[in-house]
Amino acid sequence: MYGDESSKSFLRKMLPRIVKAVIKGLLYFVLLYVVPMFLVSQVSAFAPRLFSDYGQVVTLFAAVVIFFAVASELTSGTIFQHALNIGKALILIIFFVVALGGGIVRLDLNIQESLPVSIAADLSVYLMMLIAIDLMGLAKSVLQAINFLSESAEKQLPQPQPAG
Amino acid sequence: MKQAVRALGWATSILWIILLFFTITVVYSAFQIRPSFTTKPSVSTSHDTLIVSLPFILYNGGFYDISKFNITTVVRDDGGLTMARSSTFVPIIPKGVNASITHNTSLGIGQLATDDLSYLLFNDSELNVAAILKLTYANAFPFEIALNSIMPWGAPLSNLTIGGVSGSSLVPLSFENHSYFEMSGTVQLEIVDNAGHVVGGGTTGFYAPPGSRFERDVAVTLSGSPLNVAEVRLYFQTSFFSYGPVVIPVVWG
Q1: Chain B hits for A137, Cβ within 8 Å
Q2: B183-197, pLDDT tens digit by residue?
Q3: I want to staple A138 with a disulfide (CB 3.0 to 4.6 A). Which of A1, A5, A89, A158 is the partner?
């Protein structure tokens, strides 16, 4: 009897989070996967050899962000939410560095036989922008975690009783 | 603490939106850059220099300026020896502007007379042309496009031959001009015997337009028996270069 009540209250507590996580996941899926993949396919049709590899990058980026968004939503109100946000920020920094080849993107093409073309783009300024914004997100998550822990500790303190 | 978190949250969101907007506009703008080649590349000569001109128009139809636009071409022979290096630099191509650019590659024909490159006077070959285009887009993204291609080289003195030196006072001389430029000037012949002494010679003028064959019987003076002739040395004097001796052994059949 007690077990049923407990699971019911757990479900009641979790249901809004699950619904929110599903909606957020779907929204992120459309914004970070469907729309970018459509754009990549459009651009790939224009210059297939130049952009065809970016489908994998978009897929991986969308997978990372959606996973952390859903997991963060499911664990909202706990310290795990903030831990996941910190983890997301760190993983995204690594992802950006790897995806942009450390800031230098190179591409070797053979437009015609015996006509090799090499394209190199220095995206280090862009990478710096991405990392800087991500570091701000990391700082925000760390501050949120500290705030959450300090509020939890405050709640555990004995409440002062009025004298008399 | 909560205010700081909120401020960071707003700042992060705003910066993500700005970066996304910047990324989309940069990618869109990059596709609005259109080069067009309205005039065909031309080849001309000036003094001892062969000039290949590549005129083109670059339309910057994007939202951002193109700066530090630089084209460099390097021409190398089969062995990797640098024959010519030319650069064209345009400091800035503002957005919405059609920039007319002419890139000239100058090849000093006179340097063909140097030891390392003299084989190009007599043998058709292939030259390696490396073109490197560098530019900075939106003042933030340096780009580099490198292209390698092969250019055929036609020798100006291809199939240079001397006919038999006999008792006659005429020596047949012929060559084919496979190059892009006119060959005109004089050629001096020295006839050398087995002992290494100059025993005769002659001089003639020549004119061979591109793609033509030059043939002439050169009047020579010869002292002694033609059977003792070992070789003929040729000295070319043209408006582009002076080269010699070209030693052609005389083989008696």
Answers
A1: 8, 12
A2: 889 999 998 888 888
A3: A89
